[in-house]
Each structure stands twice: as structure tokens, then as C-alpha cells.
């Protein structure tokens, strides 16, 4: 017997989909990620252009962003939990886009008047502009983190309701949007800067964020109207009930106590308020930070979350590190762009595979299969270290390059570069930097490396979606924000460690060692997940064989996950 929905005409079903809360979330997420990807790509280029041929500002910006999320992730998540959903989403949206617009306008001023700013106050005014750009851009990134936690980790769960398959489909669609915008948005803004200028690029990004902010604000309101469940929040309701009960108790005790007891109670209340307004509030962020990490550790999906974080400790991705190494191995910009496209297609295949495998095998087993697939593909990367054409050489000290930069050839300590800017020749950012790639004897090593990296994206993104949905399903509603905030902090921590690892061993001869360390961390991450999966599946089997046994509270309750 056909359902009522299937009896509707095709045009009517399509119209209902475009008006549904699910589609509106997709549209809003596409607008948001498009702006984020354009800005993340452009701000790095802008900072390099501003400081000549130095990566100092880019490195400082990356360090500030990673450190901020690492320290404030739990606090941001706690703020998401303790406030109404619509207020959190709209506030994060306005702060993020306003910060990007302000930063874009400031960059336009710096690009237009850089020579004049350099001569004022011995260059300190321009240095102040650099500090303001990095600070405002960091605020935008923190607001983007809050927006991501709110929409992708909370709103999506509420819109999907109790339908786990719908939640999996929505997570996969959101991730496909991420993959597409990660390629197309930088291409667009890159062409604008190439055929126009950095000044025009800043103006375009600022204008886009202004337009996107208004449209996303409207879309959030429409989703909120179409999903009444978003108006109710478990943590907020419990807090309101506790405050109401506290007021009722005070009212009842106030009517029954004598004046002496009443005055004593007033004195104690005044003292509590005094402590609350001073020391208590000053130490509240520290307590929130501690409580967030303790709550994360006590979660049943702790090992699953840790396994995802360990995957960030790797050089086997399409970032500046891997592309820089590929250049030293003779690959030009055209080949790298094709490889990046193949990586994106592989990632999309991984998201599609996630939904199919989950329906066949269940959520927990999907993560196990994805982990095995990723590790199997990464064996090609390990093989590339010892293949012909590999520059891997343990006789070359990985610290030689660092010592050379610090002390120079004479052995005396070099003077540290100052942030006070000077007039330097600007590098041609718009030109292709891979025009003349160095020649190598054999391409077998680099081919094996990128074959493993691209193939492993299928397992990587399937595993990422698995852990994401495990967190969505098993973390209670009142703790979704703070747990996902700590998860973001863990991801940034391991990502920061992988950059430190590269700084300590920057020469191509040591890249093979970095590959082996990266695969080791990925393997440790999946071992953590295998432990989690084994414990969860064993508990499900035990409960199935012994129906009278009470479930273990430390085991995730996943009715459709096995």
C-alpha cells in the first residue's frame, strides 16, 4: 500500500522539499560555508601579501586561531547549551559576518594606504593594523565555531527527530556541501584576485558576507518556525525549573520565619551575591573549562571522539605541507589541482558510502569498516617512503634546517625578526608558484603517496560521519554544545601538534619519517575506536542473550546503530 506522500504529484513533492526545514538548513549551510571557505583561503593570501615574502603573519594567525579554540572551545559550547537556540545561532551569525566585513574593510584600507601607514610612527601604526586584522579574524573564527556547533551538532539533530536514517542523510548532505564549497569557493575568490586585485577581493568578500548574513538570518528564522521542537531546550528548561523552585522555597520560608532569621538570611544572601559577583564570576570560565573536559572524559563515546581527534595528527592531507612536499618531488600546479579534485571526489564517495554501509551494517560497524579501509589505503603511503624516488634519508638530521635558520652558517644566533614592518618588494601571489618544478629521478614514490592519500579519503570521511553521528545520538541535549566544543578543542590540539612536528623536521628528507608518524597516530586513533566498538557490540550481544540484565550506563544506547 502506497503512502500518502508517494501518491502526491512529483512537482508537489519537490515544492514541499524546497519549503522544508531540511532544505532551508542545507541552503543556509551552503551560504555559510561558501563565505567561510572564501575567507579562510583569502586571509592567508592577504597576510602573506601584506608582509612581503614572509609567512610570519600567516603563522601567527594560525597559532592564534588554534590556541583560541583550544582554550575557549568548552566555554563556547557551554554558552551554546545555556542559551536559546535561535539566539545562539543569530548572535553567532551576526558576530561572524560582521567581523569578516570589518576585517575586509580594514584590509582594503591597509592595501590602499600601505606606503603611507609604513611611514607613520615608524611603522607601528601598520603593525597595529596587523594586530587588529588577526584579532578580528580570530573573533570571526570563534563565532564560526559556535555557529557550527549550534547548527551541525544540534539543529540538525532536532530537525531529523527520532529518525536515525534521516539524521545520517542530513549529515552526509552537509558534508558533501562542505566538500564542494571547499573546492569551488577558493577557485572563485582566487580568480577575482588574479584578474582584479587584492583590494577588489577584500571588497567582494565583505559584500558577500553582508548579503549572506541577511539571507542566513532569514533562513534561520524560517527553520525555527517550521520546527517547533527547536523552541524547547532540555538544559534551559531544567535551569528555569530550578530557579522557579528556588524562588518558591524562598517565598515559603520568608512567610514562616521570624524577623531575626529573616535578617540573618538576608545577610547570608548578600554575602553570597557578593561572592557571586566577584570571585565566582571571575573563576567561572576556568570551572567551565574544567567541567567541560571532565564531562567529555565521562562520556560513553569518549574513545570514539578521541579516535577522531587523533586523525588530525597527520601530514597526509591536501594542506600547504603536503602540496609543498609534492612541489619538491617534481609535481606542478596543474597536476596538484587535478589531485585535489580527485581528493574531493573521493571524499564525496566516502559520504555516500557512509549512508549505504550504515543501512546495511549499522552505525558502529560502519566506523569499523571505514577505519580498516583508511588504514589499508595508508599502507601505500608507508610504501612510498621506501619506494624509488623517495628522498627519505635518516642520515640527514631533521633539525639541521631549524638550526640553520636560527644560528646561520657562522654558528652565531641570528637576530629575531621584528613585527615592525618595512617596505619590502611584494611577491607575485597571483602568479603560479609551481611553474618550474624541480626534476626527480622517479615519480613512483610521490605517486604511491598521493594514491594512498586520495584513496584513504573514502574511509576518512565515512569514519568522520560515523563519529559525528555517535556524538549526536549519545550526548544528552543539555550537553551537546560543551561536548562538541571540547571535541573541537581536541581536534585543534592534535592539528597544532602536527604543525609543530613539521616545524621540527621541515626538510624533504625527513618527510618520510613524518609519514610514518602520521600513519602511527591514525592507527592509534582507530585502535581506540575498535576498543569502543568491541565494548559496545559485546554489550549489545550480552543484553540480547540476557533480556533481564540491566543495561550498563557507560555503554551507548543505540537502538539502530548495530
UniProtKB/TrEMBL annotation:
Gene3D superfamilies: MFS general substrate transporter like domains. It comes from Sinocyclocheilus grahami. The lineage of its organism: Eukaryota, Metazoa, Chordata, Craniata, Vertebrata. May be involved in iron transport and iron homeostasis. Coiled coil: none annotated. Belongs to the ferroportin (FP) (TC 2.A.100) family. SLC40A subfamily. GO terms for cellular component: basolateral plasma membrane. The chain crosses the membrane at residues 59-80, 92-111, 123-143, 294-315, 335-356, 368-387, 510-530. It is found in: Basolateral cell membrane; Membrane. The gene is slc40a1. GO terms for molecular function: iron ion transmembrane transporter activity; metal ion binding; peptide hormone binding. Keywords: Cell membrane, Ion transport, Iron, Membrane, Metal-binding, Transmembrane, Transmembrane helix, Transport. InterPro entries: Ferroportin-1, MFS_trans_sf. This is Solute carrier family 40 member.
